[in-house]
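Reader question, answered in our methods column.
A reader sent in the components of a multi-part assembly and asked whether the whole thing could be modeled at once rather than chain by chain. We filled in our standard form and ran it. Here is what they sent:
COMPLEX SIZE: two components
ENTRIES:
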Amino acid sequence: MIKYKGQEIKLGAMGWTAIIILAFFLFLAFAAEILAPYGANEQVDASFLVPSGQYLLGTDDLGHDIFSLLIWGSRISLLIGICAALLGVSGGVIYGMIAGYWGGRVDRFLMRGSDIFQSLPNIPLFILIAAYAGSSLRNIVLIISVFAVPRIGRIIRGQVVSLKHNAYIQAAGMFGGSSFYLMKRHFFPEILPLVFTALINMVGRAILMESGLAFLGIGDPTSKSWGMILHYALEYPSTYLTSAWTWWVMPPSLCIALVCIGFALLGLALEDLADPRLKN
Amino acid sequence: MKKSRKRVLYILILCLICSMTLLACGEKPADEQGKAAQETQPITISLVGGDWGFPDPFAHQPRDWGGVYTMLIFDSLLEEDESGTIPWLATDWNIENDGQTYTFDLRKEVKWNDGEDFTADDVVFTFEYYQEKNHLYDLSSISSIKKNGDYQVKVELKEPSVVAESRIFQTVPIIPQHIWQNVEDPKQFHVTEPEKAAVATGPYKLADYQQEHGSYKFIANDEFWGGSPRVSEIITVPCSESALSLLNGEIAITMISPQEIEMFKDKEEFVIEELKPYHHKWLCFNLNDSDLADVEFRHALAYAIDKNELLERMYMGVGNPGAQGGIPMVHPMYNPNIEKYDYAPENAIDILDDLGYEDINNDGIRENKNGDPLKFKILVMSQNARAAELVQIHLKKVGIDTEIMSNERGAVDKMTAEGKFQIVLQKGGYGGLSGDPDFLRRNFNPGSNTYHNFSSFGYNNPEFNELADKQQAELDAEKRKAMIFEMQEILAEDIPIYYLYGQGGYYVYNKNIYDGWFWPAYTPLLDRSKLQYCRGAAN
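And here is the structure of the entire assembly that came back:
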């Protein structure tokens, strides 16, 4: 049973499905050392072996065991997702709190900035930035999180603005509470549920984004994320001429889809927690 | 209400089915029409599209098809067919003064495609104008060019050269004086006067060029001095998967990788021609790096990398392992007696031990003399990252750590030119590694050229430089060959560049569309010369 501020949260079938899916992948990620039969960079055998007892999903063009790659990939993909989400959401919270709390010109400036930022098409911009800044894993995480900041900032700002006019906060301010104190003591706890759901939604989004970029060939080419496995599988000239796609293309695509569904379902299940208007 | 909506839906579905059936029916007759038409109508060839710039000598892109398209319209003095160099705008040529003076007799009764006569003035003007304005063709070796009557020109080189024939006279497109003499900015001329910029003597005329679509259309020049060309129309079409486009009959010819060749094997209309493995992948070392500067250390790297395994995994074994003399194994001037550095990790380990690189902290990676781990950065473009990963695995086995740094083409080119790298993995060479072996001089003698993809960084061997300069003036073929063999020995000993493998592959063409393809004597490409398209009717 999950409780928040004394209130019981009902997850429902949707929530539990999400938790099962995500727990499975988290388990894979944490126990990769034990579960993966081979290392992520280990060249185990000839290239393009078909699935067998020894190599459950066969081997890829360089002779890596695809099954092991998938397990190691879950660690990298989840790590990317969580890092990008943490960075993006913390940036968004600061952005939104500043805009909402100070209001006036600062608010207008930040919100128009957010408008401009959100109206820009993301993918071409990503490609451009990755080309100039270099496409290391760190840069990809940074790009994804920076692009999330204005969007999350806008959500947070709305909440802060509506809280600002509450009498108890006004009072705390008049009794000499500093801005920092007010934010920490009064605003932050109130927006925490919102932050939490934003975080969950963002993880799935970031994983999908990274996979999309990797699929396009943008990203660290030596990383072993699911997106990169997919990229190399599709880049290989004859993947679709043989049945190799069933064990080289399908499994990573499925993993990406499942994890994203998992995060999306969890986000939905926790929505009433985040949105005060949905509370009974 | 609901009923009428349903009805609309039914009608829509019906329409859809009808249109699909119509489409399906429409395909077959069109196909048959095509076959019937082929026998009677002139030949049209479609090629893989893409933008290579406006096809004039100033605006085209220096790579791949840029020059090829330009030469469909423009003519050079000489050309190349399966027998070697042949007369083209020049009917005859004499080499005198130990290869320093070239005299060309020009073809008479040639007309520019705007009706003007072609004379020696145009040739003289072309070379002088290029020396002043064009950076795409390197004419720095020419000291003077004079006309001798209306149909003869004499070219003086600064120093004797046996390679001018192929390097200059076969490649430089001749332009009309009456068009270009008053043009100040030739690079932009095609923007304002596209029709004038494409006035030339060649077998084709530019009918259409759309930069944004990367599409070209060339039609036969009926006034061509060599008779009307066999292929009467060459167009380019966009295709993302050239193998599939070829399979569907959308294009006439393309290069195919070993992985895709199965699709064509049992199909009667496709002819498969094997490609000579000139296209290489190689590691270029920065010899200013303290570890890489040591030739013994480079020997260790050479033994540690399994070239055959790389070729097997990356290219299904179709090709050759790299030859370390700088000349590919399939080249007629390849020296088969040079050191091959067959895979021998135990040799690499011995050398590294002797040099004092030992694994002090037992982490599997050796430490250098300062106690730092022996680690190199390998710079690659992302499409070469897979090969770099294999190199990484091989080097790790002898205790050398590597990190793969991927960047896009422009950044990689810039970093390598400026020497901001340790090791870079590159590829290329169809044009460069198949021609006259003078490319060794240009690649490895630092006095001869500025940096390009094949150059070694920081390599300077006086013994090699001297030979390199001597061979280009040596007219005795046997003596020259001996020098070039010796140059390969020096390079194989020094390893400024480590050649991983030359990849083969295939040309596949649809013989129902066109079957006039031939292998030129020196250029290992089937679709990149105008002779492929225009000859036939002419002879």
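What stands out: Chain A has a mean pLDDT of 86. Chain A is about 70% helix and 0% strand.
Send us your own complexes using the same form.
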